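TICKET #2291
ISSUE: user wants both folds in one file
ATTACHMENT 1:
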Amino acid sequence: MPPSETSRTSVEIASQPGTWRRAAESLALFADALPRRGERVAVVGCGTSWFMALAYANLREEGGHGETDAFAASEFPHGRAYDRVLAITRSGTTTEVLDLLTRVKGVIPTGAITADPETPVMTAADAVAVLDFADEQSVVQTRFATTVLALLRAHLEAENALPAGVRPLERAALDAERALAEPLEPAVCAAEQFTFLGTGWTYGLALEAGLKMREAAGAWTEAYPAMEYRHGPISITGPGRVAWLFGPAPQGLAEDIARVGGLHAAASGDQADALDPLADLVRAQRLAVHLAEARGYDPDRPRNLTRSVILDHASA
């Protein structure tokens, strides 16, 4: 299914293999903003950025680069000691992120990754990586978020700290090209409900896939760690409903989905020809746009959302 010519979101989705490669090629320019080996790091963000923080935190810690926690910026534990705080903010204006960076400035070294160099985050953080080539016109985040994770993955790869089984970024970019070219399954497009599942770093991707479907298409979606699926979420699965797994499947999971009549939509996993999980997220992004357009929604301007959440402290 080619990208819709009328949807900016689809065009931005289609550009991701290129922005991932550019992030990796620009890695040396952003070194000051990124964690050093051995540092105890907190990664923060809001919404999609928080989910990318969750994915990166698992990758970094599992790869032996250093202890890493991820928090929604509003939930940062100020009593806990860290060597660095890394903030992810596309707009550079999100209130909770700026408040956190301001509060810890001069106490904890801070870095930020943003898309806009003309925003307050440039002075709120000690060092900033600007991925302006991955910025978006759409309200819904797609390529900025994945390009941030691509940059952080490339950094771990350059420092020989990718966890076992995580592929080089170039393989992920090649898989994303496949995910853009291959048609979406008709049965998946026709489903009424979606449960996204992940393990380790791919749990963050599952959360993001669910959010993307809700934001763009108003779809009924849920997201869980894959091993939690049997502890309740399986009750919602049935005919006309999808369980979508990012990464390898726990033993017996596919059989359990089939037993209750659900559709197991897994394109990433252990097989050599399976998509990289980050490329599989591209497939979910495409599905979100498809469903939005099929339902008469504008995927570029979802209801109730703005590009950045800026709070009025006087009324908060």
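ATTACHMENT 2:
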Amino acid sequence: MTYELYYWNGIQGRGEFVRLALEDADAAYVDVTRVADRGTGEMMRLMGSTTAAHIPFAPPFLRDGDQIISHVANILLYLGPKLGLAPKEEALRWYANGLQLTITDFVAEVHDTHHPIATSKYYEDQKEEAKARASEFVTNRIPKFLGYFERVLAQNPEGGGHAVGSAVSYVDLSLFQVIEGLRYAFPRAMRHYEHLYPNLLKLHAWVKARPRLGAYLASPRRLAFNEDGIFRRYRELDIEP
């Protein structure tokens, strides 16, 4: 069965965390809104359905046969065992889900650096508030979250540089994406902080070197970061910590 991923066309956004897992596992999937004869309209119809029993609030969501799963962490909790990207032990699966939910919190804070007042308003309508929010994010929240994940890697009793257990998981792939996104959106801040997190940098390097993921990253399927997604590069927000 081919998985169907629904997310906004033209941006990595939250959908990229799911794409990385599908690509690394070489899973058959369709990025629905990028298909010419389907597109965003199909996604909007599903979200606006008045007859379906299970309707998603917002993308990303995944369709697997008759099953529709929404929210990144929930999708990865579902996909992880199927793709070989989750621990076999039940306790570790719940731990992995908790880590992914923490990544979700982090990504939400990244988003709020450029949309601190309302998602319905343009960045240009809230620039002053964004500067204040970004200053707090760069100064306090980046080291708070990265410091936590650095500790997670260092204290994993299984070792091997993984976030959970002794093998690669979707959490490792998501942490790679977080570092990629922060380097794009906050390059000055990341140059200042990166040396503090050697375990995260090692993880980023070996995830990037994984054969299937490396091929994906070099392909047209990997959308470029841009100023319509979650990780956005605005020079005025990339302050020196």
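RESOLUTION: both attachments delivered.
EXTRA DETAIL ON ATTACHMENT 2: Residues 3-83 form a domain with the Glutaredoxin fold (CATH 3.40.30.10).
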